[in-house]
Design goal:
The chain is an all-alpha fold. It is built from 13 helices and no strands. Helix 4 runs antiparallel to helix 9 and helix 8 runs antiparallel to helix 11.
Length: 339
């Protein structure tokens, strides 16, 4: 076997000690590179989206108290959640992944998380909202605090100085972190907010925020698919980690996350608004959770149906806009992005 062939075979997602992690070639995990290319094709900036109509509507009396609460709660959650994801990426995940092409994607994702944080600052600044109220909501609103605390515990577990993935216990803790952030945070916790804001956009309300949420949703779809490939790849390379006891631990974690997300939806929609109720989001969260479970090898838990079939259209972003009215929604800068 040549040194190049050995280098290819010895590249592992975690615990790779025989290959220089700084050597990108030869690429073993083509899915990681494809996600990187798709991420590059997705590039956008929040300041490219006009906010004039949103500002006018926000200053008017045309939004109900319920709609304003929904918008504020989502800005409060996302403004901190994106930072949590970014910190977990650069402080926890990147350090323990030992594959160069996977690290290449993580660098791209970290930049996208910075863009998302920039987005919420741009929205808050455009609408002249109280920055302290929005960015401190994770400390003051119980349903947001509950979700953020849930995630921060997973990061704390692998930030210890003596943490290593070289033991089965350490590798399982790392895998649990990946599931907690990719499957739960980006795959479940984010999707209620996407559906809420995009529902307003469908009613021609807060369309600038809605467009930015569409771009974030498109990014998060790539993040989620990458995370699923990474999780399943680690499982395939380390089948001894996926014990019945560990699987039960993961299921309980996802059940807790679903409960937290339903509480959050009820907090955002205590009385419901036109076309949206908390009960609809209970079904939606369960539907989303089932889809995530199936992608990492579990059976469905809830068998709920989605009340928002139009969300698949929002993810696809197949619509185009007149360039002189707004930017092209199918914005691509480097390569063709195919879903």
């Amino acid at each position: 076997m040549s040194s190049k062939e050995k280098s290819f075979q010895d590249k592992f997602l975690i615990n790779c000690k025989t290959v220089d992690v700084n050597q990108l070639m030869p690429i073993k995990y083509k899915w990681a590179w494809e996600h990187y290319i798709n991420g590059c094709a997705n590039h956008w900036m929040p300041t490219e989206v006009p906010m004039s109509k949103d500002i006018e509507l926000w200053k008017s009396n045309k939004l109900t108290d319920g709609e304003r609460r929904l918008i504020m709660r989502n800005l409060g959650f996302f403004s901190t959640a994106e930072s949590l994801v970014a910190n977990n990426l650069v402080l926890a995940i990147f350090k323990h992944v030992t594959n160069a092409e996977v690290r290449q994607y993580l660098l791209r994702q970290a930049f996208e998380e910075a863009i998302h944080s920039h987005t919420f600052l741009y929205i808050v600044d455009s609408l002249a909202l109280d920055e302290r109220e929005i960015f401190n909501m994770y400390n003051e609103v119980n349903t947001i605090h509950g979700k953020d605390t849930f995630e921060m515990k997973l990061t704390e577990g692998i930030l210890a100085d003596d943490f290593s993935t070289s033991t089965p216990e350490g590798a399982q803790k790392f895998l649990k972190n990946l599931i907690g952030y990719y499957i739960i945070m980006e795959g479940i916790f984010f999707y209620s907010g996407f559906a809420m804001i995009l529902s307003l956009q469908r009613q021609n309300k807060m369309t600038g925020i809605g467009e930015q949420f569409q771009f974030i949703l498109r990014d998060e779809t790539v993040h989620l698919n990458f995370g699923i490939d990474l999780i399943n790849g680690i499982k395939a390379e380390n089948p001894d980690l996926w014990t019945p006891a560990f699987q039960e631990e993961i299921l309980e974690m996802i059940k807790e996350a679903v409960h937290l997300e339903i509480l959050y939806a009820k907090d955002c929609l205590p009385n419901g608004i036109l076309g949206l109720t908390a009960d609809m989001f209970e079904d939606y969260v369960q539907y989303i959770a089932d889809r995530r479970l199936e992608r990492i090898g579990f059976e469905k838990l809830y068998n709920s149906k989605t009340p928002f079939p139009w969300m698949s259209e929002a993810i696809d972003l197949a619509k185009e806009k007149n360039f002189f009215e707004s930017r092209v929604t199918e914005y691509q800068s480097a390569a063709n992005l195919e879903w």
